[in-house]
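lol forgot to send this yesterday, sorry. struct tokens for the thing we talked abt
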């Protein structure tokens, strides 16, 4: 089965951990992940500027490692990211900001990427959100 996974909650939310565990289990079971799409507060899971307390799991780091290890298509919604100050180097330069907080393996892109993933996948699985 081919999954598109959308994550709407920040790294400290339980649904972010559940999304990662689901994605790991899906690949372990032989399924395919068409795309991971981080939207709304989910964009914080891709930020390398998030500092996780020592007694908590570093989910942004775990997501980066997972996406890199499995060479997945990890997309961060550009509008949601800009609204939250989560920028890659190109956007930081464009908006004259001093620092970028998103780098490979993540790509900033629009909602069209989520739409395309939904069309390619057998199932869309969403985590978090209101």
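and heres what i got for the seq, position by position
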């Amino acid at each position: 089965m081919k999954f598109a996974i959308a994550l709407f909650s920040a790294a400290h939310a339980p649904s972010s951990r559940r999304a990662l565990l689901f994605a790991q289990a899906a690949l372990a079971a032989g399924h395919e992940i068409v795309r991971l799409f981080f939207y709304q507060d989910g964009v914080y899971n891709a930020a390398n500027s998030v500092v996780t307390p020592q007694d908590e799991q570093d989910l942004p780091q775990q997501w980066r490692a997972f996406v890199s290890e499995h060479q997945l298509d990890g997309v961060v919604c550009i509008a949601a990211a800009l609204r939250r100050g989560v920028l890659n180097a190109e956007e930081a330069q464009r908006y004259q900001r001093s620092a970028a907080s998103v780098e490979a393996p993540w790509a900033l892109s629009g909602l069209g990427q989520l739409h395309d993933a939904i069309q390619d996948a057998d199932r869309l699985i969403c985590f978090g959100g209101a």
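The helical segments are 14-28, 59-70, 78-83, 89-94, 112-120. anyway ping me if u want another try
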